[in-house]
Amino acid sequence: MYGFWLARSDGDDVVLEDGTRFCFLRQQSDYGDSRPNRCLADYVAPHGDALGAFAVGIHGAGTLSEGYEAEHDDYRSIMVKALADRLAEAFAEWLHAEARKAWYAPDEALSNEELVGERYRGIRPAFGYPACPDHSEKEKLFPLVGAADAGLELTETFATTPAASVSGIYFAHPESRYFAVGRIGLDQIDDYAVRKGVPLAEAERWLRPNLGYEAAVEVVR
Questions:
Q1: What confidence score (pLDDT) does residue 221 get?
Q2: pTM value?
Q3: For residue 192, how many C-alpha atoms fall within 13 Å in the half-sphere facing its CB?
Q4: N-terminal to C-terminal alpha carbon distance within the chain
Q5: Could you tell me if 25 and 52 are in contact, meaning their C-beta atoms sit under 8 angstroms apart?
Q6: Tally of CA atoms within 13 A in the half-sphere of 204 that contains its CB
Q7: Contact yes or no for 20/183 (Cβ under 8 A)
Q8: Helices (H) and strands (E) in the chain, counts
Q9: What does the DSSP assignment read for 126-146?
Q10: What is the distance between the alpha carbons of residues 17 and 38, in angstroms, rounded to a whole number?
Q11: What pLDDT sits at residue 35?
């Protein structure tokens, strides 16, 4: 499942024409040179642009793997999961090529070596990965692409089922690159929570692995 929508950047966010707002984070590294501190919103123009999104999944692998586990055949169980993961990634790569040809690169003709080296224009970062580490943004993405129609669902912690699944967003900007946000401070988390419209503690919860400070731990009684 994939599609394209009219969009614009709004600071460190990207806003679609229907009002959907994807919130992003900016690198906080002090390089000491001319390299910019990147944010994914930098790859979308402020006065009108486009953004793509996608979701793919491999069904049936979980049931097959559980069957092998019930037979105490750990090897086949592991191999089924590994193959399903590879198929999901391959499907996502193929779908990205189809999206590029339908969107902004209709004449793209790359060799296998060039495809493996990702020498095409554009990127497809996934929520939860280094450039956009907040998994909870998938909650906005899934309705957008109709992921439920393809049998994909989110758990309460925003993991995807089936497990062999890939989802994310497409950026077409010729200078778009993958990067890692890295460690982020309280000031950026506070700003992010305001933009996202959630309490600070909730933003800290989903971004805890990226925090550059020790956040208070909420005690559940």
A1: 39
A2: 0.89
A3: 27
A4: 41
A5: no
A6: 14
A7: no
A8: 6, 7
A9: -BTBTTB--GGGHHHHHHHHT
A10: 24
A11: 79
Answer whether the bond into residue 162 is a cis peptide, omega within 30°: yes
Strands, DSSP E only, in the chain?
Answer: 2-10, 13-16, 21-23, 49-57, 153-154, 160-161, 165-170
The CATH label, of 3.40.50.12780, 3.90.70.10, 3.10.196.10, 2.40.50.320, for the domain at 2-182 is 3.10.196.10
Residue 121's pLDDT is 95
Domains in the chain: boundaries: 2-182, 183-221
Which pLDDT value is given to residue 36?
A: 84
pLDDT at position 203: 96
Q: What does the longest C-alpha to C-alpha distance in the chain come to? A: 59
Mapping DSSP to helix (H, G, I), strand (E, B) and coil, where does residue 95 land? Answer: helix
Q: The tokens 């999961």 sit on which residue? A: 81
- pLDDT for the residue numbered 219: 42
Rounded distance between C-alpha atoms, residue 52 and residue 144, angstroms: 10
**Does an H or E element contain 204, and which?**
helix 200-206
| Amino acid identity at 168 | G
pLDDT at 218: 58
Residues of the chain with pLDDT under 50: 219-221
The pLDDT assigned to 32 comes to 73
